[in-house]
Amino acid sequence: MPSKLSQEIKNIPKIGPAYQARLEHLGIKTVKDLLYHFPTRYEDFSTRINIADLKVEETACVQGIVESVKMVRVWKRHLTITEIVISDETGKVKALWFNQPYLAGSFKKGMTVCLAGKLVERKSSRYLSNPMYEKVNDSADDEIDLTHTGRLVPIYPQTAGLSSRWLRYVIKPLLANYTNLPDPLPNATITAYEFMPWGEAVKQIHFPESLDAARGARKRFAFEELFFIQLSVLRERIRLNNERADAIAMDLPLIQDFTKSLPFRLTEAQRVSSYRILKDMEKNQPMNRLLQGDVGSGKTIVAMMAALNAAKAGYQTAFMVPTEILATQHYETFSKILKPFGVETGILCAKHTAVSSFGQVSKSTVLELAKNGKIGILIGTNALIQKGVSFKKLAFVILDEQHRFGVEQRAALAKNNQTKKKEKLTPHLLSMTATPIPRSLALTIYGDLDLTLLDEMPKGRKIVETKIIKPDGRAAAYEFIRSEIKNGRQAFMVCPRIEGDEEEKRDAILFDPKADYSGAEAVKAVKEEYEKLSKEVFPDLCVGMLHGKMKAGEKQEVMEKFKQGAIDLLVSTSVIEVGIDIPNASIMAIEGSHKFGLAQLHQFRGRVGRGEHQSYCLLFSDYPTRRLSALLKYDNGFELAEKDLEIRGPGEVFGSQQWGMPDLVMASLADVFLVEKSRNAAKGILSRDPTLENHPQLLERVKQIKQRTHLE
Ligand code: ADP
Ligand code: MG
Q1: Does residue 216's CB lie within 6 angstroms of at least one atom of ligand 1?
Q2: For residues 139 and 401, which has the higher predicted lDDT (pLDDT)?
Q3: What is the extent of the structural domain holding 98?
Q4: What ligand is nearest to the CA atom of residue 603?
Q5: Are residues 492 and 400 in the same domain?
Q6: Which of 28, 307, 548, 662 could tie 317 with a disulfide, CB 3.0–4.6 Å?
Q7: By alpha-carbon position, which residue is closest to atom 18 of ligand 1?
Q8: Strands 585-590 and 616-620, bridge-based pairing
Q9: How far apart are CA 701 and CA 274, in angstroms?
């Protein structure tokens, strides 16, 4: 089986080098990949009607004989129009295609064609606008097997340079040759859950006989994918359970001193989760824990406590975060709070390298101090897993806002441990996130990992007052920002990337792989907004600017000034999205707020309302959306996530790409039973064959999944 399906697409005669490149850009390299490139939906053209029965503004399918073909150029509007007229016994109808001049050659007078599309009326002329078309072979009998019309027609995900028509043309003939291959799922599983067999499912998902059949096929493939993901994570879990870690005793008096030294009392949720984490770390089996808590719930302190306990016991901690700004902030907080405890904290980023007792030092100094164990807690970006970084006794890894659980990062960090022990030990792992992940997704991607919720906010937090600002409210909103600042507060102003940026980027990459559109538009927007606000709107205030293209040193300086209150208003891209903590900031203003996702908006809003001041979130938008209204109604991340799920579906909310999972699977995550079934099926197999050594085909697929889901 593998030999046939793993055949490269370049061996398919219809796929030339240009198409091959486009397909490969989507990760489609083999026949199997192509067969697993599923349509997102189907257009129902299964019933053909008489031309006389066509109705304006309705979509339908008709069949007739071509009466005439012509091509018109409208020079002024840079348009070419291909026009044909077809007829059947009941009448005639025109069909027009715009800017597809090559089409004229596809039609000949007297040919029988099937057209499927919408009948429109413009200036008293009626025509089918850009219909799908297909030549019908008249010699054949009634059982003509149509591809693009006269059936449920598959529509594939939109991608520049790869039309659904072309994909249908290439995939359809493959179905006959490849679908009688063995099923990748175990027989017992197929029978137990009454799934459609593989070959049948491949046919039905691309060219279904009915929508029911398509649904059955989709369900089967969602299950298949989930099953292999489960096999992969559960097998990984079994492997992890056999690893050993340093057992770090919990030093109760130390923990008590630490909590007493804080300017606030821990919340109950913080106490419970810290205790659980410290207890986990007392075992000689590595901890694998995800700490999930809404923005502002106080995850950092929980992590700090565990790192302090490890440091005082003579072990090192690596704390990895997504941005340099966040690393700097954590470094400062750790240095300050841990000073009385005599723990050396260090920071290692591309530009920022320092340790708490000496301040800024060279990178090589930081590396040296980490290597000989002088740094107890090393904070940094992914610079931490680059060459040359090593630890003397790394026993604990913390990841903040990484969107991924981080087993790989831990492994990368542990690789350079200098421990002399015979057995290679695995550091304990604590991964922290504010992303509210639904349980079914957590089960799927994180396997059996331990989940702790920080489901309580520190006392005294005021709810951030959220308002939508329409164009006519802009002046008043600016005045409000000014008055807050005059009262001693500070404000953020976030700018979106320009609309269409993402698509532009995709196209650009497709046609010019070297093009770099990352954030360029957003930077431009920030610069313009900065000009406007500093010169026209708030010439009396100190306005600062922050974006991803600035040098690390500049960014740091701006954040430092903002922190000290020297900057009143900070105009920024979404770089401030994660983790930044400035208690004196009381206003989060967001330009073009409808262009951001709910989760992101919630993250922005979480940047304010952290101190004792009443705080505000101003959503500037000309287009108030349901998403924005949801933000007015809910202030809890989990409730918002559910709302978002309802409005947009899981694929968009959690981003399939981010988790390395196909849309099909993301959509099926709402089906808790399917997730449970796949999990049970995987567990059943692993209980008999924990390493899968007796199931080579399953193992091969698991390895592929691992590769895909772990590529950052
Ligand atoms: P997040 O969970 O979003 O990472 P942080 O750890 O950054 O949140 O904490 C947000 C703010 O709340 C910080 O300024 C922190 O000092 C403060 N904080 C943490 N725990 C408490 C508490 N129990 N009471 C009051 N403030 C707290
Ligand atoms: Mg945080």
Answers
A1: no
A2: 401
A3: 47-150
A4: 1
A5: no
A6: 307
A7: 298
A8: parallel
A9: 38
The residue out of 603, 634, 665 marking a domain boundary is 634
Non-local CB neighbours of 230 within 8 Å, separated by 6+ positions: 444, 447, 678, 679, 681, 682, 683
Q: Residues 573, 486: one domain?
A: yes
**Residue 81 lies inside a defined structural domain of this protein:** yes
CB 414 within 8 A of CB 442: no
8-state DSSP, 517: -
Please tell me the distance between residue 274's alpha carbon and the centre of ligand 1 in angstroms: 14
Mutate to test the pocket of ligand 1, among 433, 607, 610 (most ligand atoms within 8 A of CB): 610
Domain at 67, CATH number: 2.40.50.140
Instruction: Name the residue with the closest Cα to ligand 1, atom 17.
Output: 298
Q: 143 exposed, middle or buried (CB, 10 Å; 0-12, 13-18, 19+)?
A: exposed
List the single range of 214-223, 278-287, 374-383, 415-424 with lowest mean pLDDT: 415-424
Spell out the residues 6+ positions from residue 257 whose beta carbon is closer than 8 angstroms to its own: 341
Closest listed residue to residue 95, CA positions, set 417, 106, 625: 106
Q: Listing from the earlier edge strand, what are the strands of the sheet with 465-469?
A: 465-469, 616-620, 585-590, 490-494, 569-572, 543-546
Q: Is the pTM of this model over 0.85?
A: no
Domain co-membership, 308 together with 411? yes
Please say which residue of 412, 433, 454 terminates a domain.
433
Cα–Cα distance measured from residue 30 to residue 295, given in angstroms and rounded to the nearest whole number: 43
Residue 33 lies in a domain: no
Per-residue pLDDT averaged across 526-531, rounded? 86
The answer on 423 and 531 residing in a single domain is no
User: Do residues 426 and 510 share a domain?
Assistant: no
- How much distance in Å is there from the Cα of 300 to the middle of ligand 2? 6
Report the number of distinct structural domains present in the chain.
3
Lowest mean pLDDT among 153-157, 277-281, 661-665: 661-665
CA distances from 251 to 86, 206, 305, 311, 428 (A): 86, 61, 11, 11, 17
**Over 80: is that where the pLDDT of 499 sits?**
no
Same domain, yes or no: 629 and 546: yes
Same-domain pairing of 494 and 546: yes
Residue 668 belongs to a domain: no
Q: Look at residue 436 and tell me whether its pLDDT is greater than 80.
A: no
**How far does the chain reach from its first CA to its final CA, in angstroms?**
30
Give CA–CA dist 573/445, Å, rounded. 30
Residues measured by CB to lie within 5 Å of ligand 2, the ion:
579
Task: Lowest mean pLDDT of 470-479, 532-541, 545-554, name the range.
Answer: 545-554
User: 114 with 77: CB under 8 angstroms?
Assistant: no
Can you tell me the distance from the alpha carbon of 481 to that of 41, in angstroms, rounded to the nearest whole number? Answer: 47
What would the pLDDT profile of 73-110 be if each residue is shown by its tens digit?
A: 887 777 888 999 999 999 999 999 988 888 888 899 99
Check if 490 has its Cβ closer than 6 Å to any atom of ligand 1.
no
Nearest atom, ligand 1, residue 299 CA? 2
Contact 477 CB / ligand 1 (< 6 Å) = no
Mutate to test the pocket of ligand 1, among 301, 305, 333, 612 (most ligand atoms within 8 A of CB): 301
